[in-house]
Batch of 2 targets.
Target 1
Amino acid sequence: MDRMSVTEIFNGIPLPGHLHTPESLQYAQDFQFKEGDILIVTYPKSGTTWMQEILTLIYSQGDTEIAMTVPNWERAPWLEHTYFKDTLKEGEGPRILTTHLPSNVLAPALQNSKAKVIYLARNPKDVAVSFYYFHKMAKFLPDFNTFSEFLDRFLEGKVHYGSWFDHVKGWYRQRNNLDFLYITYEDLKKDLRRSIKKVCRFLGCPMYSKEVDKVEHHCRFPEMSQNMMVNYMLIPNEILDHDQSKFMRKGIVGDWRQHMTPEQSDAFDKIFQEKMSGCNLQFLWSLD
Ligand code: A3P
């Protein structure tokens, strides 16, 4: 398999070489956004695939054909991935794009464009757990022996894709400079219908109630985990080892409580307070 153990360092951030090259990263940085573009921005494991599915369904007015026949990475390609240039389609309708890159790389180009940005964040304890399982399955990410080892690296901001804290704070600081919607995974979990309508309003895409019903139904965890176009089962075991973990793993808020000891959770809280001081973002750590 291609470049499975290569790491690209871009702007100080390690990224898997299987998906990124210096050329693909430069292409992303130089990308010309245009009016109508919608960019989904996330730190990994924050619900990226979920938002890709929601946007697909909003733009098809709830018709599931595209969602059930075209893989998510083709309908909402990652700007920085090697295949991006060849996948980008200049057709009718808005271009839905995805990125995990930090704000300092993309904000300058976005500020000079009329693209819309949807930033989807997730509470970082659940991100850490989900990311740990993703490292177990993704053969292009480093191996960690234990969750504890991974958690330490995550809190230091030394994992692939960099610091969660820097990513969220960096993008949130851009909220008044861009056409920007900030929404969380926990918002989607708490009230999917309300969140879909919020996204529709931001996009200027009115929908009939019956269409929202369809989007809501199709974007529930049980439905999405069965959809081969988003559950990553199309990717062979040599790249994503589905015996180690499922991509659509649990889809819940608060799974960190099954993985962190009270001491780990306290240490996490302390670092969270330090790193997020001066930033008024609040996260829901559980739904009960
Ligand atoms: P878990 O590993 O906690 O289950 P990303 O797409 O950014 O890689 O995020 C993947 C995470 O989002 C996984 O979390 C996955 O299960 C969850 N997810 C994807 N679709 C979802 C849905 N419809 N409802 C709830 N969670 C979903």
Target 2
Amino acid sequence: MDWYRTNRRDLAFRRTRDPYAILVAEAMLQRTRIAAGLPYYGRFLARFPTVADLANASEEEVLRAWEGLGFYGRARNLHRASRLILRDHGGRVPETVAALRTLPGVGDYTAGAVASIAFGVPVPALDGNATRVLARLFRLRGDLSRGVGRRRLRAIAESLVPATEPGTYNQALMELGATVCSPRAPKCAACPIQSMCGAFAEGRVEAYPTIRRTSTVPTVRVAFALIERRRKVLLMQRPARGVLAMFWSLPGGELGTHADEATGLRDLFRSRGLPVRIGEPLGRVDHTFSHRRWKGLILRGRPAGTIRDREDLMWASPEDIERLPVVSFQRRFLEGVAILPHSQRRL
Ligand code: SF4
């Protein structure tokens, strides 16, 4: 903790004790590069400064504020959590791990982080960084995410959390993992707990923890159409479930086993009753999500009949596009083809 006090990075979410702001930070920044996530965090809190502000917002407004950060399920969970906090806890984030765990999207880590940092409850908060430090200190092998390995890790972690300043302790452990005890080539020479470290004594620091091999994500072919009419662009709302649920998108999507994108898109539009002629390619798509990769094309589309607005279909003006959550790589594309001015890039 002494090391942490002098070496910690000065990050916006560490300057607050507001439980809601801490909950937002945990939801937004988990498994996200901090440098990439921080601007979103600042904008999100400016847009929704209290639990009530978030709870009273529409899902579209919340997704718009989160747009580009990915992991949109987290945004939905945080939004639902804010409504439950307002309804069941009088708008105050609950203090205990048990109550926090009842909120959507809140697992052991987030509950431990919020309880310890915001309320001083002496419980561990084991993110990937803290887990790696403990695995090396205590030479823990095997899968630490489940079963015996997980129980052993948690028992050790629980026995270590101090009664005073547990939040500082948890953040110190996470910071040590993030900045010193890195997955590769940890800076053991600069480590404040080197003398206690089992892996260092053994001379095999990178052997801990056991790394699970990650499977490669499948590549899926996609195609979308830019269809314009009098300075408006046709947008389609994606279904309520699945990839980018409820985001507004250029019409199109994942294709079957077609030989090329134009044919696939033509079939897709035919099956949905959209009269569109497919034209030349305008841009490439290469976008990786956590669980799949989209590769394909954005093509010109021209209306071949009347296309009217309906619930999930809209002729969108630049102002509509600014207001709505739009698939982020498509927003960049629309800026690139000068349909959107760059000044409308963000909230
Ligand atoms: Fe990590 Fe090295 Fe410190 Fe051990 S000595 S905790 S491996 S940085």
